[in-house]
Amino acid sequence: MSTGLNRVCAPAIRRLNDPQQENAMLTQRDEYIAKMKAQLDEWNASISALEEKGQEIKEEARVKYEEHLSALHVKRAEGEKKLAEMQAASENTWEQVKLETDNVWEAFKDSYQAFLAHFK
Q1: Phi/psi at 10 (5° precision)
Q2: Burial of 95 (0-12, 13-18, 19+ CB in 10 A)
Q3: Residue ranges of the alpha helices (H) in the chain?
Q4: Second label for 100, Cα 20 to 30 Å away, from 40, 55, 65, 80?
């Protein structure tokens, strides 16, 4: 009975222990994390520029501007949290965390675009 099990499981075990496959996954993961970190850095710079621009807005519009800016800060913090989760994700949880992170990035991007459209 163990001979049949070995014949079925051995290829799967070899794939799991395949250094090339593992290196490819780690490279893909590292590239994705680097891309997300660069995007987060870009958003940080954009938010800083928006904060500076906010200083020029008239008082009545400033309250609304600051509310929207605060919402962007919350979304950015969610992105930072997801980046940390991605960096700590195991091989088993990587795909799920990547999917969740993509959703957070899209939500931030949508909020950012709406902010820019509203305060042009």
Answers
A1: -55, -45
A2: exposed
A3: 2-16, 19-54, 59-88, 94-118
A4: 65
- Would you write out the chain's pLDDT as a tens digit for each of its 120 residues? 444 444 444 444 444 556 677 677 778 888 888 888 898 898 888 888 888 877 777 777 778 888 888 988 898 888 889 889 888 988 888 889 888 888 888 888 888 888 888 876
Residue 48 CA from chain centroid, whole number: 19
What's the length of the chain?
120
Report DSSP letters for 12-26, one per residue. HHHHHT-HHHHHHHH
Q: How far does Cα 56 stand from its chain's mean position? A: 31
Our CA angle for 17, 20, 26, nearest 5°, is 90
Amino acid at 113: Q
